[in-house]
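Our preliminary data section would be incomplete without showing what the modeling component actually yields. Below, a chain of 252 amino acids is followed by its predicted structure, encoded as tokens that our downstream tools consume directly.
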Amino acid sequence: MTRTIKPTASLLALALAALPSCASTASESGGEVQSVTYEVPQAYDVILENGTPVKIATSGELTYDGEPVTLSRVKEIFAELRADEIERIAVLPAKDTGFAELVSSISKIATVSDYVFVELETHSKFKRADTDDVAPKQFTGTLGEYEMPVLIGYSAAKQQCAVSLGGGVVDSSGRRALSPEQLYDRSFIWLDTLVQGAGGVEAILQKTDAGRDIVARFQAPPDTPWHCIAGALYAVQRSGWPMIRFEVMQQR
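Predicted structure:
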């Protein structure tokens, strides 16, 4: 499918790349939500030179070069990278790491270093759910003016990922569960609409703390595997969203 790249979204990506990176991470837990914020890197090709990643096992355990590591060791690794002018440590979760374990581990890493997820393209072609009852049906919480809700679920029986956008976004057949390509397209359109509605790139950057308030909020149950989250993340970050917030929704 041929896509027409809208200039506002393209210019936003260029403007964000020219700004100093805040590599902002914040985490919180309590009540209904455990969460962590991820700043999408604008110079991704350079960051991929990080080398050996810190891996997150399905249990949430951190390893580096095949050995378990403590957070103090992660901090040392990050300091070594900074000495080589590499600004983020590479993080590689296992395919079936649950969302709750992922967010817990990332929240810990974020206290000692900036980070970037690698090998997302491995999960870019996730298997779309054939029913709409897999993903959460409704966004939980209050959505900000420059935020987009991304709802994710998983069918273990069918090994399918269900990714949908809030706000009544559906495909041409009326289904909420989107394919990777549909997710990219609709995320792109959502962002472009926000930029145009704000009055252009410079205006939206002024209104959103240099883009830090432009956030795609990922909500999923605790047991949703990383490969579903990663597939959605790959599509959404390619569409130009600068900030992602992962929110673990406790099942009732």
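The CA atoms of residues 146 and 194 lie 7 Å apart. The first helix runs from residue 7 to 18. Preliminary results of this kind motivate Aim 1 of the renewal.
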